[in-house]
Specification:
Chain lengths: ~140, ~120
């Protein structure tokens, strides 16, 4: 049973590339949300193994979404990795808010799953052919 | 390491994404080009600056995923210039937007990822 990741990003390209990479290279099951509000709803409903959350989003931004995820009992323990293009200014602050780590955009789609696993201490991603074939179907 | 079959699958999927994304990247570039026109004519307000910043931010965050590292870096530099407290340097921004234009124009097909380039 592959692990489930929730990707929350308002940028369609980022969602598509992250999903492609995490499914085909990493063998994860991926669900996506295009806003903080939708992400909170999915996180509550699905309770993914981890969340990749964009920092800069209109309306409910990544920081507020992270605070909300950590506040809700059903989602508080889900590790959250922040996606940001401006790592230096935000990294320490985000770690204080309870993020498991920070990934800088743009990411290399071939490397993303391993970076996620490294941050979460999951070991190498399952990128064998059989796993990825299943994910692609 | 991802196997060759996966490598091809990922590449094909990313090519498809890029083909769909390129028009959006071009329209974000158009936002920046229009911003320069406004900057020249002194018609820049906060809203216009925010829209340009957002376009640069999105280009910086997405182009590199398709192997367009130079474009990403160019857009990142534009964003940094637009985030400064002082008035944006029109010559510098214009030069960067011009570079970005040339890079995107020269990239009708998807670029290779870092790993693909290393193969």
């Amino acid at each position: 049973m592959p692990r489930t990741l929730l990707v929350i990003d308002d940028d369609r390209d980022i969602r598509l590339v992250a999903q492609t990479s995490l499914e085909l290279v990493g063998g994860f099951h991926v669900i996506v949300a295009d806003s903080g509000h939708r992400g909170l709803a999915f996180a509550n409903e699905v309770r993914p193994d981890a969340i990749l959350l964009d920092l800069m989003m209109p309306d409910l931004d990544g920081r507020k979404t992270l605070d909300e995820l950590k506040r809700m009992p059903k989602t508080a323990s889900i590790p959250v990795i922040m996606l940001t293009a401006k790592v230096q200014a935000h990294q320490l602050d985000l770690m204080c808010h309870g993020a498991a780590g920070v990934l800088v955009k743009p990411f290399d789609p071939m490397q993303l799953p391993n970076q996620v696993c490294e941050i979460l201490g999951w070991g190498p991603s399952k990128n064998d052919e059989e796993q990825s074939d299943r994910a692609a179907e | 390491v991802t196997g060759p079959r996966n490598e091809n699958k990922v590449r094909a999927a990313l090519e498809k994404v890029w083909l769909n994304s390129r028009p959006e990247a071009i329209s974000r570039l158009a936002v920046l080009e229009s911003f320069i026109e406004k900057l020249r004519s002194g018609r820049v307000d906060d809203q216009c600056l925010d829209v340009a910043r957002s376009a640069a931010h999105r280009l910086a965050g997405s182009l590199g995923m398709f192997g367009l590292d130079e474009g990403s870096s160019c857009a990142g530099n534009i964003e940094a210039l637009l985030c400064q407290d002082s008035a944006p340097d029109i010559v510098l921004i214009e030069d960067l937007v011009h570079q970005l234009h040339n890079l995107l124009e020269a990239t009708p097909a998807p670029m290779k990822t870092q790993q693909n380039r290393d193969l």
